[in-house]
Design a protein that fits this description.
Elements: E1 24-37, E2 43-51, H1 59-65, E3 82-86, H2 92-106, E4 123-135, E5 138-149, H3 151-155, H4 171-178
Antiparallel strand pairs: 1-2, 1-4, 2-3, 4-5
């Protein structure tokens, strides 16, 4: 016999439905920040964050905790609340300055000190846009952090939600889709 759960009448039923983040502005908190190398070998700042306020508070932590895990495969699911700033190449200085200025404006008394580890716990405003991607041959959408702004900008609604980033198939994908296998029945001889 199953033990009765306390406060059973107050427990909300969970049918396994996934809450989907929508495009818009959110107040976010930095959970970790570190330098890494991009796939192309460039230095980049990787910011792990979560939603700090509102209906989607803790969105990425919930997603991480509820991600399917395979007992036969010890690989942990990936943290999905990430923002990347490449730290070399043309124009990176301006993007880094926009990021650090938004952090300074969002956290009274904080001044950027060139130590990314000190960003942990800092708030920022995030503008999220809808982006298309392909999963198992199907085009799907997801809201992704597009720009970092000040918390004040988000709270006052002084931003526009950008249009959706549509999925554009690569040349190789288009060629593969155009290829039609030929059977013996299709041949005229």
């Amino acid at each position: 016999m199953i033990n009765k759960i306390e406060n059973w009448d107050k427990v909300e039923a969970n049918y396994g439905e996934v809450k989907k983040l929508i495009a818009g502005g959110y107040i976010c908190v930095i959970l970790a920040c570190k330098q890494e190398k991009s796939q192309s070998g460039k230095k980049m700042l990787v910011v792990n964050f979560d939603i700090a306020e509102g209906d989607f508070r803790g969105f990425y932590m919930e997603k991480y905790k509820n991600a399917p895990r395979d007992m036969n495969n010890p690989v942990e699911p990936k943290w999905q609340g990430k923002y990347y700033i490449v730290l070399e190449g043309e124009g990176y200085e301006g993007r880094l300055k926009a990021f650090t200025t938004s952090i300074e404006e969002s956290n009274a008394g904080y001044t950027w000190d060139w130590n990314e580890e000190n960003l942990k716990g800092k708030l920022f405003g995030g503008i999220f846009r809808e982006e298309e991607y392909v999963y198992n041959g199907e085009v799907r959408t997801n809201a992704k952090l597009w720009q970092v702004r000040s918390v004040k900008t988000i709270r006052e609604g002084n931003f526009e939600v950008p249009r959706k980033k549509e999925y554009v198939p690569s040349t190789q994908e288009v060629a593969t889709q155009m290829f039609q296998p030929i059977t013996d029945d299709d041949l005229p001889f």
